[in-house]
């Protein structure tokens, strides 16, 4: 008998606080009105982009704790990861918080990985408050994984734009807010894709495997969710996932979308869309949680994907393995007017309207 990969949380940990911070380009995208903080420039007042990425994470963690209306000393554990070598953004940010720290690496799936592990620790009663965070920066990712920015290399149509942004949330035993109902852990899937400019194709099979596993182990279907959202497959990758699911006997409807595909407007020239740890993390901690808090979304299947590659592996001709973790989020607010319509979710591919739970702030 196959091992089970899904946890059903008995006590359903509560997301009591959340926060999102993004760069200026991201602040002109489809979710602009939902972000908590939009920076004036990508450097965020720092001398290097790596330092800016660390500062964004610190800012997001502090913002989530403040939004949860708890004191920093009430947090027991910080779960965070990023894309830089040895997850230095998270580790260096953790120096400024007097809490336990677990560094995670799931590439762009890190937000879901943190939520799954953090929810298990809160649900089991070990901790009262756990912070989950992650982030990325366009300039640090380009420098590490592709080419120096100064070269101005031509980007192929399949490539995606690494989001400059960070998101964080607080998981608590008690309180009001969206609840984490389930988590399905992904396994590493490799379809032998080698093109570092085609991450969507590399990660789509992992999304399919996790989605099929989740539906099978929870006896559910796409119709059980107001929104099914993958992370960072982009336009091409999400189309591949739709095809793969249909070949497996499941048709994804209008309630499916992808964070990377939704993130930017068409005139922002990001080709296949957004990517990076900060992509799904900022969408979750702005738009999705805002909609759940208002009861406009009742049940969400959040499925960020990650490409588990490194520059060394790519230079040695290795393929790009993928992983995807799934989180089920439920609103604690009764639906108004018969609940969410699937067409409302599709509107996020054009300019979004509406305010976030915290008044949007701009500044660097």
Structure description:
- The chain is of the alpha/beta class and 364 residues long.
- The protein has 2 domains: 7-172, Peroxisomal Thiolase, Chain A, domain 1; 179-350, 3-Layer(aba) Sandwich (Peroxisomal Thiolase, Chain A, domain 1), CATH 3.40.47.
- It has helices at 49-67, 88-94, 110-123, 138-145, 199-218, 234-247, 259-263, 277-294, 311-315, 342-346, and strands at residues 6-8, 14-22, 37-38, 77-81, 100-103, 129-136, 161-162, 165-172, 179-184, 227-231, 256-258, 274-275, 299-307, 322-324, 326-330, 361-362.
- The strands form 3 sheets. Strands 1, 9, 10, 11, 13, 14 and 15 form a 7-stranded mixed beta sheet that branches. The protein has a 7-stranded mixed beta sheet with strand order 5-4-6-8-2-3-16, with helices on both faces. It has a two-stranded parallel ribbon with strand order 7-12.
- Helix 1 (49-67) packs across helix 2 (88-94) and helix 5 (199-218) crosses helix 6 (234-247).
Short description:
This protein has 364 residues and is an alpha/beta fold. The protein has helices at residues 49-67, 88-94, 110-123, 138-145, 199-218, 234-247, 259-263, 277-294, 311-315, 342-346, and strands at residues 6-8, 14-22, 37-38, 77-81, 100-103, 129-136, 161-162, 165-172, 179-184, 227-231, 256-258, 274-275, 299-307, 322-324, 326-330, 361-362.
């Amino acid at each position: 008998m196959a091992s089970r990969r899904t946890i059903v949380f008995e006590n359903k940990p509560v997301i009591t606080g959340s926060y999102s911070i993004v760069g200026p380009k991201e602040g002109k995208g489809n979710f602009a009105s939902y972000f908590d903080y939009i920076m004036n420039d990508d450097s965020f007042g720092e001398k290097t982009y790596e330092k800016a990425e660390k500062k964004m994470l610190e800012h997001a963690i502090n913002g989530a704790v403040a939004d949860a209306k708890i004191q920093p000393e009430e947090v027991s554990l910080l779960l965070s990861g990023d894309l830089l070598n040895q997850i230095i953004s998270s580790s260096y940010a953790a120096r400024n918080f007097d809490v336990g720290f677990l560094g995670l690496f799931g590439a762009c799936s890190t937000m879901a990985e943190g939520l799954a592990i953090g929810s298990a620790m809160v649900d089991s009663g070990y901790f009262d408050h756990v912070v989950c965070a992650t982030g990325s920066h366009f300039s640090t990712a380009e420098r590490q994984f592709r080419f120096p920015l100064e070269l101005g290399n031509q980007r192929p149509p399949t490539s995606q734009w690494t989001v400059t942004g960070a998101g964080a949330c607080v998981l608590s035993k008690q309180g009001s807010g969206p609840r984490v109902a389930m988590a399905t852990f992904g396994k590493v899937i490799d379809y032998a894709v080698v093109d570092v400019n085609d991450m969507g194709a590399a990660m789509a099979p992992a999304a399919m495997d996790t989605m099929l596993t989740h539906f099978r182990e929870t006896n559910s279907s796409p119709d059980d969710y107001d929104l099914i959202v993958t992370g960072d497959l982009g336009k091409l990758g999400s189309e591949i996932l739709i095809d793969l699911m249909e070949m497996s006997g499941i048709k994804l409807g209008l309630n499916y979308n992808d964070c990377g595909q939704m993130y930017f407007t068409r005139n922002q020239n990001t080709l296949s869309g957004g990517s990076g740890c900060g992509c799904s993390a900022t969408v979750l901690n702005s738009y999705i949680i805002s909609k759940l808090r208002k009861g406009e979304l009742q049940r969400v299947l959040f499925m960020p994907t990650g490409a588990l590659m490194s520059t060394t592996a790519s230079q040695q001709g290795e393929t790009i393995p993928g992983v995807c973790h799934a989180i089920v989020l439920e609103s604690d607010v009764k639906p108004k007017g018969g609940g969410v319509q699937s067409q409302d979710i599709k509107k996020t591919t054009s300019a979004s309207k509406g305010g976030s739970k915290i008044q949007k702030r701009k500044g660097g």
